[in-house]
Amino acid sequence: MMMWWMKKVVVLVIMMADVVASQSPQHSWQQDAGGGVGAVLEAVSQPTCSLILLTTSPSTIFKEESVVRGSPWGVGVFEVVVDGQDANETLVLLSHLLHQARQVRMGSRCVRVVVVSHDPVFLDTFAEWSLKGRLLVWATKLLVVTSLPLPQLHALLSSHWTFSMMNTILLNLDDTPPNLRYSVYTHLPYSPDGAQVLRVAVWTPRHGLRLLTALPLFPEKFSNFHGAEVNVTGKPWPPYWVEEQQEAADGSLVTIYTGCDYLSLETISHTLNFTINIIPTASWGEAVKKVEERVAFITAVFHVPLPERKKKHDFTRIYEYNQMSFTLAKPGLKPSLDSLFYPLTGEVWAWVLVVLLFMPAIYYMVSRGREKQCGRLRVAAEVLEVMGILVGQNLPQQLPPITSGRLLVVAWLVFALIIGTVYRGNLTAALTLPKYPPRPETVEQLVDTVHKVTMPPFGELWRQFFAGSDSEVYKKLARMMMIGPSTREGLQMAIEQNTANMAARRYLSNMIVEHFTEADGTTRLYLARETLFPGQSAWPIPHDAPYQSQLDRCLIAIIEAGLYEKWSDDTVSQTRRRSQRRQREYLAQQLQQGQQVVDETAESDKSIIALTVTHMQGPLVFILLGLFLAGVVFAVEVSMTYNK
Ligand SMILES: *[C@@H]1O[C@H](CO)[C@@H](O)[C@H](O)[C@H]1NC(C)=O
Ligand SMILES: *[C@@H]1O[C@H](CO)[C@@H](O)[C@H](O)[C@H]1NC(C)=O
Ligand SMILES: *[C@@H]1O[C@H](CO)[C@@H](O)[C@H](O)[C@H]1NC(C)=O
Question: pTM score, two decimals?
Answer without folding.
Answer: 0.73
